[in-house]
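User: Predict the complex.
Assistant: Input components as received:
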Amino acid sequence: MSTVRRSCDHRTRMTARRSQFGSLSVPDLLRSTDDRVVAGVCGGLGAQLGIDPMVIRLAMVVLTLANGVGLATYCVAWVLLPEAGPDAPLAPSSPTRRRTTERAAGVGLVTLGTVLLIRQFGLLLPGELVWSVSVCAVGFSIVWTRTSGVNRMRMRDLALGTSVDGARATRSLIFRAVVGGSLLIIGLALLFASGGVLSAVGQLGLAMLATGVGVGLLLGPWIVRLWRDLDTERRHRIRSEERSEMAAHLHDSVLQTLTLIQRHADAPGRARMLARRQERELRAWLFDDRAPVDGAAASLVAALEQIVTEVEDQHEVAVDLVLVGDAPVDRSIDSFVSALREATNNAARHSGAPEVSLYVEVEPERITAFVRDRGAGFDPRAVEPGRLGISGSIVGRMQRLGGKAEVHSTVGEGTEVALEIPRANGTATS
Amino acid sequence: MNTRPTVFLVDDHQMFRSGVRAELGELVEVVGEAGDVESAVEGIRSTAPQVVLLDVHLPGGGGKAVIETLKPELPELVFLALSVSDAAEDVIAVIRAGARGYVTKTISSPELAVAVQRVRDGDAVFSPRLAGFVLDAFAGDAVPDVRDPELDQLSPREREVMRLIARGYTYKELARRLDLSVKTVETHVSAVLRKLQLSSRHELTRWATDRRLI
């Protein structure tokens, strides 16, 4: 068995945070990845709030005419809201029909309210324009929502040029060119035909808008596609970098060890130790975030793993570590760890057993450790009273620390060394 | 029961399967093997073994999936989890799904045969590591709002037994040290297994969240 380590869960899971207001819950706002015309803002909002996205799009268009409020809101949302992904899924709520109508009506009223408010400030564009465009938009949305899915796809491909079919691509190009071009011409015409300062402000806004929409229609799909390609390429690059890093590591460590093992196949003890060491290293590399083991260990876990590594490397003996609890290392725990190291080394060196079990338990008032082997054992009583003996120094050390040590051994059956050190208020007394 | 236990091997590492088959051949009767969840479920249904030696990491949902699929159909069937990894999340997950024991692949063949025999006879097999996890998870005796004291705490005797197992004692050595019969030791271990499987309490959950298992 290899050493104990704190297993970190590398997956960080983002859960949709829900703030509870009585029975209402306000979900995170996200952008949709499926239902998107430009950036999925309306799709996402619609899905999260339980309103038909088409209604939201309609509201955006109308508000855009109200001095660009809708457009501004859309852009802000595009920048701020994250995209829905596997980590943060869109909550698929399926509200009842009556609720959708209610919510749609709510959106409509909010839109109307905003338009009237802006009109109060005298910033509204010519009234006829707003209402006629609104009517067109309503008509368009009705047509859109009443078409079947297939036809809708076809119309969307036509407008956005996302279809790859040759003939259809040309048709969509022509369509987009005509619409975009005419909007562009309208915009420019308005720009040059405008007279007077005050009306020019409103006219200018409209002109810029038309120009912007025209340019967007013409170039939009390309820009979006380019952006997405860049993103995919970046992801591919990151993945291949990771893969070559992993390959390099495996080559340097595992491949080398496997070659060594083949060469030492006749010395099973050596081969086993090579394999065990490599196993430990590979496990640490795969699962641990902690800093490498050189230098002073900050916690008991790290200190114990250091012991295991040292003893295993020096003596070709397997050390099985089981640890319950953890504690920060202070001076007396450090001395405790040294005594433990000595005991483990003794067991590895003198017992003749292939395995040593190391068990450490951290309790609130004390830390106990047991070093056990099933080796030759010895008779504690046979040690002359004057001589220290193998375990004498350990017993003395522990007593100086304010703890205690006991050695139980039976000839032919093995040895167990029990160490204990008290803790006071979470730290050991020295 | 002194007959050889019938065993079904499930492990996605083919080399390992043939190794186990060769080494255990005399001591147990290997009635079948499989490398993923689907073929394991099919194979077990058709060969009806007593014990399933089950790897934790398998394509198709892992060892957990095999246990969860077959437990309702074959309640008598016993699972012994076997894995390279002794990470807490693997061990605990498969025990709570219903495995009666967990051993790591570095175990020697005689010990593996003994473990198979033991689970076949209805007892639980705990590796020292698993015993350590149990002690860690059920640490702290005075919990104020314990819902089910039976399930959510270890009795002092059980704690003693777990501690000795964690220290590497075999059941026989344990029995001798605590002056009990091996049967009593097995009863205690089974009781602890049941607690680990059924305790849904926040001690276990807190332990798991501390280790970011949940």
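Residues 38 and 60 of chain B are 7 Å apart (CA to CA).
Let me know if you want any component modeled separately.
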